[in-house]
Amino acid sequence: MAISSQQATGRQRHPTLVAQTDEFDEYVYYPYYEKSVPGGGYEYVPELEEVVEYEEEPVEYVIERAPQPSSPPPQRTTVVQRTTVQHEVPRYIGSDKDRVRVVVRVRPMSEREYDESRKPQKVLHCVNENSIIFDGGQHSRRFTFDSVFNEASSQDEVFQYCGIKRLVDMAIEGYITTCFAYGQTGSGKTHTMIGAQGASIFRMDEQYRVEHLGIVPRSINYLFQRLRDKTLQSSSPYYIRVSYCEIYNEQIRDLIRPANPDALQVRGSIEDGFYVENLYQTYIETIDELLTILEEGELNRAMASHKLNDTSSRSHALLSIQIEQDVQESDDPNEQMTRQGKLIFVDLAGSEKVKLSHSKGKQLVETNNINKSLLTLGTCISALSDPSKRSGHIPYRESKLTRLLAESLGGHGITLMIACISPSRLCENESMNTLRYANRAKNIENEPVVKTDSKENVINRLKLEVRKLKDENNQLKKRLGGQNSATSLPRLKHRNYDEGSQTSIRSSASSELYDRQDTHGRMNGVSTQKIRSHHETLTRENEKLVRQLHQRDREQGLSNGKRVIVIEEDVPDEETYPSSNRQVTRTYATEPNDEVLELVRRPSYLTRYRTYRNKSSEGESPQRRTTTVVRRAT
Ligand SMILES: Nc1ncnc2c1ncn2[C@@H]1O[C@H](COP(=O)(O)OP(=O)(O)OP(=O)(O)O)[C@@H](O)[C@H]1O
């Protein structure tokens, strides 16, 4: 890894600083600026600061990612016994209606809660696998849910018995299924959905991963297992299409392609309900590809640190996995349909009391937006759970979050809510609120329907998308001035998740069968398989071209939309103060290549994210530039 001074941008060049960190085999070269500081000595001014000065408009907002703990958070032994009774969840729909299933997970008390609370510390007691007692001193109340998981419940136990497997199975059958985590900030939503330590979980050793991965990666694993089994029995292959976005300050941001130039708006249509227009969607074939999207998307999410959570998500994240299969539903070969089941995972941002979290400035703006959208969600849940109000006006339109969850709450989907709570007395009011909403959500009834569309419609829509992708491809090539080399598709890293992680769900057996069917099942001269694979090739090629464009912009000093990694290291300042303990911070800026990304994810390093939004230059929409600052944990 070497950045030469020619490659870097800046106004003045100084001799290249050469340093070696023991994490790298190679030297890191970085042109720096020396500035004398009051009191003597020099400060190394990183290249990046110069780049920031180039921006046409000063920074709009800054998000900082707080230090990640270097090892799993210490846990006190809890007195609650591990539950042994299996949580039974009915697997399929018995009638036209399907109630929203609600499970509650109580996380262990944190160190801070142990230290700060006065006795008695706990207000929640899990009585059995369905009931929980809230004992708030003044009054106590018992709640019953589909499942209750106590502080000692493992990640695997939650996955096995919360009912998510049913949702995966139903999505394969063509239903739209949603699993969302709800709860106050720091209550364990990301821990439950993604895993311990958030996105860093993917870089932990295997043993740790197996134990601590959350529901989303476990469900992805289960989905692929099921699809592999089904593919062997079925003559028609499955196709998986993924999108990942976040709602941050009521703006929708693409987490797969953070520099997506399209303005992302929520639109509504009779056939599709509410959806995000222009959201980047990509076909994937292997579990590795999907896990890479999940990990990268998590790393792109807006995070911050506040008094209640060091790694607080500041946005609602929506991962959507669409499972498509062409089916013959009647004897007429011209009447082919495509099933379009969907599995949606929503990790909501947590509600937050400013008095407790001490949020200020930009964080306060975020908090207000989070609380506002959660309030609308609460209002929708209340209205939908009340039989006298259910048929009246439901205020879905009042926030982007509720618009996008409309199908899942009172619509045609199948829904699972995971309410996360802390047992601590310090969170008494918030936990009670969460339990109340969870209790109401139990009464919401959906009317699930299998989502199908005629194969012809699907082909026409895919054709439109392919046309758009081709236009984008031409534009990208033009902007690159014909100097692109996107001949081969980008390869995704093998992450050894399970032995089948690289196995395509479109196995050779099914392709053969499909080819046979294809010769009879052509429509408008093009098969859906071909058009999907064309779509897939173009999305990947465009992704590669976008990366090349960013690389070129970086080399030419145009920082718009790029991601920069800055490595900070405290070293003894031996040159200026040979015999003192004074330290200086050396800073190295580099592009996010594989080695550096590896470092970002290592738990022994602290990472902070800063995201800047440039003012749009004429004719272009604003783009974000994310800077990741990496520091070794002390
Ligand atoms: N079941 C659990 N077991 C052990 N630790 C947990 C558990 N649930 C949460 N934690 C720890 O509590 C802290 C807060 O959890 P997490 O970040 O998942 O909360 P959150 O609800 O997603 O918060 P926010 O809404 O602010 O993003 C983390 O350090 C996490 O590791």
UniProtKB/TrEMBL annotation:
Tell me which UniProt keywords the record has, alphabetically. Answer: ATP-binding, Cytoplasm, Cytoskeleton, Microtubule, Motor protein, Nucleotide-binding
UniProt keyword Phosphoprotein present: no
Compositional bias annotation for Low complexity: 624-634
- Where do Polar residues bias regions lie? 499-511
Localized where? Cytoplasm, Cytoskeleton
Boundaries of each Kinesin motor domain copy? 99-444
Swiss-Prot/TrEMBL GO biological process terms: microtubule-based movement; mitotic spindle organization; spindle elongation
Q: Which GO terms describe its cellular component?
A: microtubule; microtubule associated complex
Q: What residues does ATP bind to?
A: G183, Q184, T185, G186, S187, G188, K189, T190
Task: Note down the stretches annotated as region Disordered.
Answer: 474-539, 612-634
Entry superkingdom: Eukaryota
Q: Which Pfam families match?
A: Kinesin
Spell out the protein name for this chain: Kinesin-like protein
Q: What is the source species? A: Adineta ricciae (Rotifer)
Lineage here is: Eukaryota, Metazoa, Spiralia, Gnathifera, Rotifera
